[in-house]
Amino acid sequence: SPDGPSPSYQFGAAVAGPLLAGFAGWVADTTAEIGVNTTHCLLREGATIADLMERVRPTSATRLVHASRWVMTRAAVLTGSVDEIADALGRRSMLTTRNVADAFNVDPRLVEQVIGFHPVHHAQRPAAVDAIAAHGELRELIVSGASQVRKRLMRYLHDTLDLDASRLVLADIGWGGTIQTCLERVLDAEGVPVKVTGL
């Protein structure tokens, strides 16, 4: 700015930069301490973590993993339980027939019979998810659709992660651990005995 560095620049240089650099160093050191050679950094934030790790710990090895919450939560629907469906359909906007149909490749007309045509307000979302999970035909189709997502995901994970190792380290910036939780659920369901550590 005309009067010097902008407030955004000052925040980045004085607060966010040192904080993230410290975090990246801690991730590299912790990965090495537990005996794992590579830190798998979950995109999008993982690209920043990997870049910083290479700067603050040049000998650390990183690998970027394209692991979206949207894919992971759908792939982790194993039985069609209320909790699994709620996680898979969790979003900030109102729930619609199209959301459910697109998420699991099911007929929107069947979804409409269960939750109606109009968008579902947040306050009514739990009841709508309960209705979806309680509807046998729709639940079976959702589980089948999730299985297809899981097959595609596993092909990617076999190509990207070191699934033959006994330990796997994931690094991300988040607050709920949703991607890691769902990844662990998927790997367990697929019989992959790797222990996942999230940083």
Model description:
The structure is a single chain. By secondary structure, this protein is α/β, with parallel strands linked by helices. The chain contains nine helices and four strands; from the N terminus they run H-E-H-E-H-H-H-H-H-H-E-H-E. It has helices spanning 7-33, 45-56, 69-75, 82-88, 97-104, 108-115, 125-134, 136-160, 178-189, and strands spanning 38-42, 61-65, 167-171, 195-198. A four-stranded parallel sheet has the order 2-1-3-4, with helices on one face. Strand 1 (38-42), helix 2 and strand 2 form a beta-alpha-beta unit. Helix 1 crosses helix 2, helix 3 packs antiparallel against helix 4 (82-88) and helix 3 packs parallel to helix 9 (178-189). It is flat. It starts with 6 loop residues before the first helix and ends with a strand. The model has no long low-confidence stretch (mean pLDDT 91).
Task: Name some characteristics of this structure.
four-stranded parallel sheet, alpha/beta, 10% strand, 199 residues, single chain
Strand order of the largest sheet: 2-1-3-4
The fraction of residues in strands falls at 5-15%
**Could you name the ranges where pLDDT drops below 50 across 5 or more consecutive residues?**
none
Please describe the biggest sheet, giving its number of strands, its sense, and whether it closes into a barrel: 4 strands, parallel
Structural class per helix/strand content? alpha/beta
Rg over CA atoms, rounded to whole Å, is 20 Å
Helix content range of the residues, please? 55-70%
